[in-house]
C-alpha cells in the first residue's frame, strides 16, 4: 500500500512543501554519511524518441544534505572555471588557415 505524505525539505534555508512518496526509497546511499537517500522527485520527459526519467534524491539528515550541497556547489564552480579557462585558451589560439 502506497502512502503519500507532505514533508518540508529545507536544503537552502527556504522551506519548500513537497509531495514525497514515502514507499519509494532510492537504492543509492549518501556520499557523505552512507545513509539510504530518499526520493525527492521523479521527472519524466521526452527527448526526441527517447523517454528520460530524472530522479532527485536527498539525504534524510538535513545537516548532511546542506554539506553535500556545498560540496556539489564547489565542484560545479570548479567545472565552470575550467570551462572558462578552456574557452579563453581556445579564443587565444590563432585561427587555422585553409587553402582555397
Q: How is this structure best described in words?
A:
With 100 residues, this protein is of the alpha+beta class. The chain has one domain (4-91). It has one helix at 62-92, and strands spanning 4-9, 16-21, 25-29, 36-47, 50-58. The strands form two sheets. A three-stranded antiparallel sheet has the order 3-4-5, with no helix packed on it. The protein is flat, with a radius of gyration of 20 Å. The protein starts with a strand and ends in an 8-residue tail after the last helix.
Distance between the termini: 71 Å
* CA-based gyration radius: 20 Å
| Separate helix tally | 1
Sheet-strand content, in percent, reads 35-45%
Major sheet characteristics: 3 strands, antiparallel
What general form does the structure show? flat
Taken together, the total number of domains comes to: 1
- Give the strand line-up of the largest sheet: 3-4-5
Percent range for helical residues? 25-40%
- What is the average per-residue confidence, as pLDDT, rounded to a whole number? 79
What is the succession of H and E elements? EEEEEH
DSSP E strands, number: 5
Low-confidence residue ranges: 1-23
What structural class do you assign from the helix and strand content? alpha+beta
Amino acid at each position: 500500500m502506497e502512502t503519500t505524505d507532505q514533508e518540508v525539505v529545507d536544503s537552502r534555508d527556504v522551506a519548500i512543501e513537497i509531495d514525497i512518496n514515502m514507499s519509494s526509497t532510492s537504492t543509492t546511499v549518501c556520499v557523505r554519511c552512507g545513509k539510504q537517500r530518499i526520493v525527492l522527485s521523479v521527472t519524466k520527459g521526452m527527448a526526441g524518441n527517447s523517454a528520460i526519467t530524472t530522479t532527485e534524491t536527498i539525504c534524510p539528515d538535513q545537516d548532511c544534505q546542506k554539506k553535500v550541497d556545498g560540496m556539489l556547489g564547489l565542484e560545479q564552480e570548479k567545472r565552470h572555471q575550467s570551462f572558462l579557462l578552456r574557452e579563453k585558451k581556445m579564443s587565444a589560439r590563432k585561427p587555422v588557415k585553409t587553402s582555397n
